[in-house]
Specification:
Distance between the termini: 30 Å
Helix content: 55-70%
Shape: globular
Strand content: under 5%
Number of domains: 2
Mean pLDDT: 80
Number of helices: 7
Low-confidence stretches: 162-167
Radius of gyration: 18 Å
Order of helices and strands: HHHHHHH
Number of strands: 0
Length: about 170
Amino acid sequence: MQPMASFHTGVNFIVQVERFVHNRYRVVEKGLAKDPELAESIAAEKADNLVKRLQEPDFRARRVFELTRNPLLLTNICLVHRHRGGLPHKRARLYEECIDVLLEHWREAKELKVGVTARDGCRALQPAAYWLHSKEGRTQATAEELKPHIEPVLKAVDLEGRHNRGFSPHDPR
């Protein structure tokens, strides 16, 4: 199993994070805007705002700052910051916001029909995530393997049938 990617620590760490955040915002804003110059300006402003937040003493003193060392988690921080315009102060709340953005708002932004709230999505995914992580080295599963872990929860939160379209492992969407 390969180690998870991370930024190198030390003096250049902050530079790496700043570069990552600015590049991420630039790509996202250019992809969404009709005016490239305006997109560049918006990206720079939002990235500067996030970088400033990441460098504030209260943020750096909390365990939330540790999340910036991993590019995937830093991407999630960027997603939350872009969607919410800020970051929560607590690590647990940041994880909740990541899930909310990924399960609800990201799909809405892509103009995909959302039939599942983030809360219900979490409830349905928790047993599957627990099962996946309960065996060391397991990093993927087929729909058939996930089915017994997800379907009971889908029924419990009333997501069976038309309400879980695009969420069930058997839905082609």
